[in-house]
Protein 1
Amino acid sequence: MQTFFNVTMLAASGEGKTTFLSSMDENIRNDLSSSIGLNLSLNPELAAKLDQNRAKLKASLSKGTITCFDGIESTDDASSYPLEISHKDSDPFLVVSFRDIPGNWITDDAAKVISYLQSSSVIVIPVDASAIMNDVIDHQTNVENLLSVLKPGLEPSTEPRLVLFIPTKCETYLASEAASSRLMAKIRSVYKVIFDHIIWTSNVKSAIIPIQTLGNCSLMYHKKVKINNEEVWKPIFSVTQRHEYNPQAIEYPYLYLLSFILEQHYVNRKKGFMGFFRNLFRELNYLKLTNERLNSQCQTYQQLKVIS
Ligand SMILES: Nc1nc2c(ncn2[C@@H]2O[C@H](COP(=O)(O)OP(=O)(O)O)[C@@H](O)[C@H]2O)c(=O)[nH]1
Ligand SMILES: [Mg+2]
């Protein structure tokens, strides 16, 4: 029997949804696989699609500067990346489906986004750190838009859920402790209404895990550009080491959410009459141990902040 869990990426366009998913390359999958002691596999066609995205990100590091016209194009439709989890030499018992959605759906097709969120155990919210730290977007409208889908999306909350904030484009903000404290303080103040809502909603856990998906670049300034007839501020990065794609801390959001999912799976499998026997025969022990191991691995990342 297979159990399915959904993970939905939620953020306006350009915050880093597709880039984060594209970071899940073979190396990361292998590292995660040895951390959890289980096999992880992605359909080869989907893995190739992520590889193509990553190739574009790597290419963006070939010049001296990176603009918003380098890297990945914005996504027009939803994509799904089911990650199959299995014991060695057996069929998958768990499928974790990562779902990427176009950012404009939050305002243009809210009903669809809400139905995605309602069927998700984990919601990952990338936050463009460069935009938030330089006040180049209308934070209030962005946060209101997110909250208007999150509130109904988290109902009904009988099953535990995880809302994971992943500040992206953090290359400049994780260089010192003082800089990362400023970033955290800014996120806590801008997203306060969302954090308050999460804290008051039962069964919802949340954490902030900053990442750098490109690495080896540094924010220079923001430039006004016209996209779809709209003027928006976009970051320009200088490349500190050419051709060297160097993602940092990218494994922690994956470890954290897999730990959460394995815990849910453990709790569900333990329930009822069958659960009693599964527990008695220690069949579930590996889930519990793996969940604990992943959790302690995440605690080693000092930038990880638990909200609830
Ligand atoms: N420097 C840097 N750039 C990033 C990072 N994440 C995303 N980007 C840039 O932001 C652009 C837009 O990201 P994308 O993932 O397409 O955003 P989406 O619209 O939310 O899917 C990418 O093409 C990258 O150039 C990051 O961690 N560091
Ligand atoms: Mg995208």
Protein 2
Amino acid sequence: MGVATVSTTDAGVARRGRFEGRRVKKPRQLAIVTDTCSGCAGAPVCQIYCPVERCMLPEPATDAWPFARIRVDPLRCVGCRKCIRQGDAGTLLDGCPWDAIVMIATSEWEEAHGELPY
Ligand code: SF4
Ligand code: SF4
């Protein structure tokens, strides 16, 4: 089975975003998209909530065919939590309606993937 062409461009994200470029300060937490992400049928809701340009981008995934799964760029994510649905004390916020995004400590990310080049 072939990998579908990603139909969602990052151009729309760039128009909506307010921040550009790599973060200067390393955030304490980063958003991670889990395997439960389906790509929202080609219209990723999470991209709407993320305030950072080109931070959440579609990435082809054979197990999410025919759409793409979202990936968070760890050098752009500011850890603002706007893409997740779970707020403090169990409150439900906007964000991924499928709870496919979790926040992890940046140190945990770096333990698994190496130090981020800030
Ligand atoms: S992370 Fe959630 S909101 Fe974003 S594309 Fe995946 S399922 Fe949809
Ligand atoms: S935590 Fe904030 S900056 Fe990071 S992916 Fe989610 S919305 Fe974007």
